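Instructor's aside before we start: the two examples that follow are unrelated to each other. I chose them only because their records fit on one page, so don't look for a connection. First example below.
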Amino acid sequence: MTTEDPAVRRVRFYGTADFATYWQSGRAAEIAERFDGTDPPTCATDIIELYNVQQYVEAGLFPADYTESQRAHARAQIPAMRGVIARFFTAINDTNVKNFITAVDRDFHRDLLELLGRNKAFERCKSENMLSALNATGVNLGLMLGNKRLVQAYDTELRDVLMSEVSNAEYVVRKYMHKDARNEVHLPRSFSAIDARELLQGYVDSAGANLNYIGLIETARVSSETGVDAKLKLRAKRRKDQMTEEFFRDNAGIKTGCEVSISGTQDDPVKVEMDGTVAKLTYSRSWLDRTLDNPSILNNFQHLFEFADDNVLLTLPSYPANLGVLERFLTTTGKTDYCIGDVFRALDMSSLLQTHLYHHYLASKDIDLEAVISWFFEECILEEFGASNFSFSPSSSGSSYLQKVRHLFAEMESVAMQFALYVENGELDRDLLAVTSDPVLYKQLPSLLDGKYAYPVEGKEIGSVLHALFSDQSELTYISETLNARSGAQLLVKNEVSYADFAEHQRPTVDYLIALGVLEDTGSRVQVASREQFLILKSLFSTQAVSYYRLSDQGRAEIDSMVAKGWVTRSTSLLSAPESSYFNYYLNKVEFSNGPELRNKYLHGTQANADGEAAHYRTYITALRLIVALVIKMNDDFILSAAEGEST
């Protein structure tokens, strides 16, 4: 096993879910065939490779043409392989550790630590000998901290190593703040919160700090365990602002954004154009002039500005389906961050500008948008649905925007609580409202409809179905240079694709979807089996939810079938889960640590005043956008509840 080119023969087991594993199954089988327990390898790299081969055999990963007798022979070798590997690593001690593990291939460093720990080498060897040998082999500190047995065995020594370099603060960030850290981090028990605070502060001030990690410290939750406090967060914020300013001082960047305007000559209600990476939205003045009544004003937010889709699910939240590949896999995201990407930023900017534009336009017509919202709660729902005693008080016209923001957030919480009491009791008792002081929990706002939303169940077949049909990482997106699409669903809907068109490795997925009744093979074409089912699946992927009562009878039957199969679950709330997360992101710290936390700051008087009235105006427009979105959802709830009542 030592006469061949190492670049050719080194086999690694990446796990059954990684395609790289399958590429090496033939080579792994060759080594398993030649394995002789009486003449075992003698160097650590060969032994670790054998350990990887053992995992191939245990997982049953053999070449497709392997006979059953060949498979049985390989499996019979497993006990001997385990014995050879164990004997090698149990022989390691203080006197031979450096010679035994020197020159282990870098790709095998993680396996090296795993086998050393599993065979109690850390207990047998003193820290100075083992750590010296690992350093000589090139095992980095990150891999060491990823091995729990090693960290437990050399606790104080690793604590000293951590504290020796300010850059090691990045391991603390990965441990406590980085959401998508690939490798687990174990910190020594002797590494205290005081140590963490000292290391993090030194890192924030250091010249080599990573801007992404500084951002994670800025948005981290205050915690005695991590050493993060308000002063450190502020220090990180100022450092991030400084680094950002310095970066753009020498880098012009790319112009991107959104422009909104009103046209006096345009007939279409709205026109959308792209000027490079800048979206231009133009609205018809004649349309706006014709829709100045209160219902039409609110409808313009829902339909003209597209705050909600056809099923009245808000378009404003950040949905995972809108994250690009780089945003999903390469963005540095905190463990308690609200994950946002370019699509969210674009929609967030455009909806804010739309609200600003419309607020200004309505004011030019002597219409106060807050008065329109007041009409909805005090007149509309009373006349249309018999919901009495609701109230919403507009801000005083002479108030500053700081005062208006505080007032608007208080009124938004009030109408949310009013709606919750109305749903829970069948009426709104103002005396009960007066003694209710609990903070509003947007995830728990009730609905007038039982089981309003259907959600996909994690870990079930539905996840594989959604990935195969709609993910840009699906194996069904590409057949040839002329037959490909952004998703499997798009490929099938826009093209006539026969079963024979799919490559051999794609057919198991197609067979799987056909067996589940998601696709059907007509002989000449593979296509979606049911339009209603397809639209439901699309909504589950794009908005993570389906509004049950917005479906046809056939659509509801599809959801009921999915519930029976364990694919989806139904629950009751005014807002869908992503919608409530959107409100939490902007308003409070219930779920996320990287949000603007506007409600908390303004109602507690801790908002920054550096930008003066302009900053308060921006927050005011944001608050208007949020309460309009809440009105859209409440109106939908009343409409659907009334319709269900009429049908029963």
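Example two begins here.
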Amino acid sequence: MTSTETATLPGTPASAGAAVGPVVRVPEPLGEPPAGPVVPEDGREVEAARIAPAGAAVSSRMMDTAGTPGLAKEVSDVLYATAMMAEDPTLVEAAEGLVRDQGTPAARAVFEAAARFVAALQAAGGYMAERAGDVKDVRDRVVAELLGVPAPGVPVLEGPSVLVAKDLAPADTATLDPATALALVTEEGGPTSHTAILARSLGIPAVVGCRGAAGLVEGTLVRVDGTAGEVVEVPAGTAVGADLAAAGPTSVSGPVTTTDGHRIAVVANIADAKDASRAAEVGAEGVGLLRTELTFLSASSEPSADEQRAGYAATMAPLAGTPITLRTLDAGADKPVPFLDMAPEVNPALGVRGQRLFDDGAERADVLDRQLVAAVGGAADAGVTLKVMAPMISTADEAARFVARARKAGVEQVGVMIEVPAAVLNAPELLAEVDFVSVGTNDLTQYVFAADRQSGPLAGFNDPWQPAVLRLLDQLCRAAEVTGTPVGVCGEAAADPALAVVLVGLGVTSLSAAASALPAVAARVSSVDLATAQRAARAAVASRDVASARAAVRDVLG
């Protein structure tokens, strides 16, 4: 920073790295279309008939983009899912009904029909609430099509730029080119939103929840630091482009230890073979979280044991010879699996989900047993050391039941996820039942604060630097020290290099994050001794709030 730079705009780190570029503001959504004039009865059929073709046109364009060669699978999946919403028969029929019954103009009818879906999704919470943003995006695109105006979204970038928006739809984020979209800054959103996750996948530095971004003027030159969560105006003439010095290392070099030899496993979060290949390329020591939902979420019937085994083997194969921790199916009303026929729930985040769906005596318990057998077979085929853990465990009895079933299926190392505050309070008994635990900081944080992690207005609560969360982790690690149980972290907290040092100081033994985050995490952990990490941890735990926790750790680490 130079003395001529202006004040720093703080936000929430969402995707690591830094870049300098001119601000390009993303236009605000269209807003509400006119409510009138009322369409005459003799013109209502013609007006209603405009809606389906408009939705089809929007869907077709998004499908074309989703099919772009070389587009990452997670990006294509987001676009395909959003494109299907544009032609959703329920939405189209509801809008057509408003035109026919009330004479509502087509654009207004789409807006009002979509509002009902948005309200229902937001009330459901969790994953379903996250989809509300996608519905709004589709709504605005169809409305623009009907009004004959340009669709909302990211403007065409004429050169390397920093995009600044109130928020970005996942479909917009998914198609960004890192060569021109140097960095993202949003006023809303949190580090676990779809936009943040896609930014990390694309390797684009991002800061979210940056309230001061509303005052950034188009064309202003700024430096965005997605690692620190800061946006700073810089003088004219500052070189535009990625800040390579801030980008840091690109690979993990061998076993990771602190400077005094304290060993920490640095492993990856993956969902498919492409993720596994990326993890291998950067030097990950294995996998701390293999999400298995992709095998099930789009399946109309349960995949056979052979299909599951082959899928797991293909996903694990790029990391042959390493340990891989697989999380069993984490489904629920907020992440519905068609063949499980789950009933809707008023609050799915607090409902029958994760291991609760498959516990002993549950209607669907045998689904878990078949998954465990397939996982053991797939790991053998891929030549990896398998560890298995269950999501949404709260008590020692739940943990013991899962361990017994996993061992019966042939799993040698069995653990559970720590996502529920009760699991920490029950740690002395729970830890005695398992071989290891892994903390999902994203869910743990939202449950601690009763704050939906997809809610923009509540993003400040859903920050893993929250002292309340760190105090829970401290309590867990102290209990684990007594039982000798390894504690890993596989939430977004493990992707923050400074926070990773804090976790090591608390007693965490493995850090698992997206492959792109691992080199910086490994380098930061390797730069300190254990005593320094412990001082940083004590400083963070003793802090009053997020800002003071970050500042206290900066003071310790320098």
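The mean pLDDT is 88.
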